[in-house]
UniProtKB/TrEMBL annotation:
Gene Ontology annotations of biological process type: regulation of lipid biosynthetic process
Organism whose genome encodes this protein: Seriola lalandi dorsalis
Family annotation (PANTHER family): SIMILAR TO VERTEBRATE MID1 INTERACTING-LIKE PROTEIN, SPOT14 FAMILY MEMBER
InterPro entries linked to this entry: Lipogen_MT_Stabilize_sf (IPR053719), Spot_14 (IPR009786)
Protein name: Thyroid hormone responsive
Stretch forming the signal peptide: none
Lineage of source species: Eukaryota, Metazoa, Chordata, Craniata, Vertebrata
């Protein structure tokens, strides 16, 4: 009998989402006292300005990863004026790409999504490992 992950191709989007979901579940089950992460400096460098402001310590990273999980699971992205302005700027920088073949554009975005999901999974696992180090538990 094949495992559920074996059904999917190694580069499957569903597999990437399952890995991320599994890492988040492990993090939530492991980190019983998230307050222990307060004031522990973060080694991670976040790209977003908003993320940089809120993720100065591991506790901020923990909250950010949980918020991202909620967005991934709900599939809803809140629309506000600030993000709309950023999207407009982003569309202007991607104009040459918008004129390309739709299949090439799809592959570009799919590779980006795989990259983001892999990075989030790795950050989640790293945060869980750091928590285990803080409480003195062996992995």
């Amino acid at each position: 009998m094949q495992s559920a992950d074996a059904k999917f191709n190694k580069k499957s989007l569903l597999l990437a989402l399952r890995r991320y979901s599994s890492a988040i579940s492990d993090m939530e089950q492991t980190i019983l006292l998230p307050s222990l992460l307060r004031d522990v400096p973060s080694d991670e460098v976040w790209d977003s300005e908003a993320a940089e402001e809120s993720c100065e310590d591991l506790y901020g990273n923990y909250l950010m990863l949980k918020a991202i999980r909620n967005t991934v699971e709900s599939g809803l992205i809140p629309l506000d004026d600030h993000k709309t302005k950023k999207t407009t700027v982003l569309n202007k920088t991607l104009e040459p790409l918008l004129n390309t073949d739709p299949e090439a554009l799809f592959r570009f975005h799919l590779r980006g999504l795989f990259s983001v999901m892999s990075e989030l999974t790795e950050k989640t696992r790293s945060l869980t490992d750091k928590y285990m180090d803080i409480i003195g538990a062996a992995n």
